[in-house]
Amino acid sequence: MLDGNDLSRLDDTRLAELRRRKIGFVFQFHNLIPVLDAAQNAGLPLILDGVKMGVARSRAAAWLQRVGLNDRLSSRPDQLLGGQQQRVAIARALVAEPALVLADEPTGNLDSRAGDEIAALLRQTSDDWKRAVLMVTHDPRIAAYADRIVFLKDGKVVEQTTLNGNAADDARRLRSQMEAL
After folding, report:
1. What structural domains does the chain harbor?
2. Tell me: the pLDDT tens digits for 137-177?
3. Which residue, among 127, 158, 124, 123, has the nearest Cα to 135 in the 3D structure?
């Protein structure tokens, strides 16, 4: 079930529509289009869904402002630092107001400071903007931003844990659990 929709009962057309409108994707390598500026990249999901260019740009600009890039709307990806590019990718994931954000190693290509900023932004996505965030990471420090951790080994769930809210303690505990697996 996703946002009241039974995924097993949807045909391919409806599944594609649901993915466009209800799921935002954040990838490790940003996947921004080099010739588009930040606002165009962030608004792309709306354009692909048939939203008019002006509306898409306005909504993209609003999300870019929320992620701290209101002064970089016209910047192309090659004019942005890695953390800024990932912020554009997060704005792109949120622009369609999805119920779920899937993040695949979103900090894996960033230095530790930028990684912490992105992890905190994904935490804000959940806390303030009320989106469910499912993140894959191998970094216990980044995983410590979550409420709940599910450990997988060879594609199977081997352990689950909830966190106590102390990032340093949680990261140490997660590192130990990961090493034990």
Report:
1. 7-29+36-137 (3.40.50.300), 139-181 (no CATH)
2. 888 888 888 888 888 888 888 888 887 666 666 666 666 66
3. 123
